[in-house]
Amino acid sequence: MNLMEKLRILADSAKYDVSCASSGSGRKNTPGGIGNAYMAGICHSWADDGRCISLLKVLFSNACVYDCAYCINRVTNNIPRATFTPEELAELTIQFYRRNYIEGLFLSSAVLKSPDYTMELLIKTLKLLRVNYRFNGYIHVKVIPGADPVLIDQAGLYADRVSVNIELPTRKSLQMLAPHKQHEHIITPMSYIHQRILEFNEDKRKIRHTPVFAPAGQSTQMIIGATPESDAQILRLAEYLYRNFGLKRVYYSAYVPVNQHPNLPAIYTEPPLLREHRIYQADWLLRYYGFQASELVDEFHQNLDLDVDPKCGWALRNLHLFPVEINKAPYEMLLRVPGIGVKSALKIVKARQLGSISYDDLKRFRVVLKRAQYFITCKGKYYGNVPFKSESIRNSLVETEDTVLYEQLRMF
C-alpha cells in the first residue's frame, strides 16, 4: 500500500475526533494554479489568540484490537486497514509543512497490539519530528488509555497538547459499549498529566531552562447521544474535569451511528447536533461566565432547553432576578444577562465611570439586544416589547433563536 492510500484511509478514520474542526473546503488545485485546500487529513483549529491554524489530522493506525461498539475502527468491522511507520508519518508531516499545507500535527491512533506498544510508536514519531527534523510547529497527541506513565511523560515533553478521550460519560456506559476499556485507565492519566503540568510549571519558576511539559495543556472528548446520559450528567462531569484536572477544553461529539448494535441508536438516526450545540454553549458558561452546572441543569431540568440557549433558559427560570438596571448592576450580574458577553460587560462597567449609559450606547458595546432587552432596564425604562412574563419572553426568544441558530449552525 502506498503512502497516499494510507493517508486517505487514516485521515478518514480520524474524522470522528472533534478536537479539531474541519475546514469544509473542497477547492482543489487547477492547472497553472497555486495551492491546494483539499488534501486528505487537513483540518483547521484555532489558537488561543484567535488565529486559525491548519493541522494534519490522522490516526497512526486504524488496526484496532478493541471492539468498542460505537467505533468505526472496532476490530470486528470489515473496513480497509492501514498503519504508518514513524518514519513515514514524520516525513509526510514535514513535506506537508514545507508545502505550506499545514502548521502542525494532530495525532491519535487506534490501539495497535497494546496501549504501551502504540504509545511507543507515537512517541517515536514525535521524536523524529522534534529531534531529527527540528520541527517546532504545534503538535497535539492523544494519549492511549492504559499506557505506562513513563510514556505519558515522554509524550508531554514532545507535544504541545496531550489529551485522553473520556468518550462515554459514565462508567456503566463504558462497560456496556467498550468492554476492553476501563474507567480508571482514562481518569488516572488525566490526573497524572495535570500533576506533571503543575510540577513542571513550578520547576520552571525556579530553574529557567526547565523543559516545558504539554504547554498547551490537556483536553478530552465526550460522545453525546450514543448512551442515555442526561445533559446534567454530562455537564457535571465536565465541571469536575475542569475543576480537578485543569482541562483546557472538553469537546463534545454528537454521535454519528456507524455500527448496528442493540444498545446504540439505530443506524439511520440523525446525530443530535442541536443538543451538542447547546452543551457547548453551556460549557462556555461554565468556563467564562461563572455559572455552575447545578444552575444550568437540576433535578427538575435534567436536559437543556433546545429552543433557547442555556443562559436564556437560566434567566427564564430565575425571572425574579430581572430586570437588572444597566447603570447599577455589578459585573457578575451583567455576565448573567442574556445577550451580554464578557467584553460587553467590561465595556459597560468602564463606561459607567464616565456617566450614565443610554439604551443606544448598548448597541455600540455589541450587546445582543434581541435577547438582552427582555432582562434589563436602562435609566429605569424597560425596553422589552412583550409583557414581563416568562411565557411571553420565551415565545419572543424562540422566534429570535430560530434565526440566530440557523446562522450559527450554518458555519459547521
From TrEMBL:
KW Metal-binding (keyword) present: yes
InterPro entries reported in the protein's UniProt record: Aldolase_TIM (IPR013785), DNA_rSAM_put (IPR023874), Endo/Exo/Phosphatase_dom_1 (IPR051675), rSAM (IPR007197), rSAM_sf (IPR058240), RuvA_2-like (IPR010994)
Domain of life: Bacteria
Species this chain originates from: Thermoclostridium stercorarium subsp. leptospartum DSM 9219
Descriptive protein name: Biotin synthase
GO molecular function annotations of the record: catalytic activity; iron-sulfur cluster binding; metal ion binding
SUPFAM superfamilies: Radical SAM enzymes (SSF102114), RuvA domain 2-like (SSF47781)
Key words, A-Z: Iron, Iron-sulfur, Metal-binding, S-adenosyl-L-methionine
